[in-house]
Amino acid sequence: MALKYAMAASGAILVLYLIVHMYGNLMIFGGQTTFDTYAHHLREIGEPMLPHEGFLWIVRVVLLAAVLVHAYAAFVLWNRAKKARPAGQRYQVKKSAQTPSRRYATQTMRWGGVIIILFVIYHILHLTTNDIAPGGASDSAYQRVVNGFQIWWVTLSYLVAMLAVGLHLRHGVFSALSTLGANRASRQRALRNASTAIAALITVGFLLPPFSVLFGLVS
Ligand code: HEM
Q1: Does 219 fall in a domain?
Q2: Does residue 199's CB lie within 6 angstroms of at least one atom of ligand 1?
Q3: Which of these, 202, 216, 214, 166, lies nearest to 26 by C-alpha position?
Q4: Can you tell me whether residue 86 is helix, strand or coil?
């Protein structure tokens, strides 16, 4: 049970980060100065009590720890569920005990998680360090976003990643709320709808900037 709570708590930290990050990205619609000032301020939060980028590093360490706890808990829980099946019957039991929707959820979470981790590495190399610079490198965060998402395959790669994030969130939020005891039979449908709505909101919010650049609304 402790692992399920660890999974829910680390997931909650990651969802909170996603909401703040998605909201911050929408500042792209305020224009170059607004967005670049925002990116600059992120590095100054807490100064002079903290060194330059001090707060940012605290956030990075917390996020990395949350990802590690989340992945470790997932791994151990899956292994435990697999071992719980009677030996020798593993495959028969798997087929009969796992409904198609459960199998779908397991596969979505597992492969979705892998896609998201690979995306985050690509994304940091793209928009933070700018080592990957499709459309040209720049010191301006705004320009990096505009240069990148003008290229269709860059936007497409983010679309795929955001769909993975959305599906992961839909199931993850539902599971977390269930773990925390919100799952009564009478509320199952409401809980599913709420999880889908939160996931859709975050996914659409993230996709607005790339598609606005691709369609020339932000340039
Ligand atoms: C279309 C969607 C997204 C856009 C346009 C976007 C945009 C950006 C930008 C512009 C930066 C660099 C900020 C700076 O250097 O000032 C950044 C950093 C980052 N983003 Fe995103 N992001 C998106 C989705 C995501 C998602 C889904 C995740 C997580 C799953 C994520 C995680 C991160 C992380 C971890 C950083 C690095 C922060 C750091 O260490 O400095 N982003 N993003």
Answers
A1: no
A2: no
A3: 202
A4: coil
Q: How many domains is the chain built from?
A: 1
Q: In this structure, what is the dihedral angle of CA atoms 155, 20, 173, 210, given to the nearest 10 degrees?
A: -10
- Residue 31 domain-assigned (yes or no): yes
Cβ neighbours of residue 172 closer than 8 Å, sequence gap 6 or more: 11, 15, 109
Per-residue pLDDT at 182: 67
Q: Distance, CA 210 to ligand 1 centroid (Å)?
A: 12
Residue 60's domain comprises: 2-86+99-214
Residue 95 has pLDDT above 60, yes or no: no
Round to whole Å and give the CA distance between 13 and 169: 12
Question: How far does residue 83's CA lie from ligand 1's centre (Å)?
Answer: 37
Cβ of 59 closer than 6 Å to ligand 1, yes or no, is no
Q: How far is the CA of 206 from the centre of ligand 1 (A)?
A: 10
- Rounded mean pLDDT, 188-216: 96
Identify the pLDDT of residue 78.
Answer: 87
Segment 105-159, tens digit of pLDDT: 888 899 999 999 999 999 999 999 999 999 999 999 999 999 999 999 999 999 9
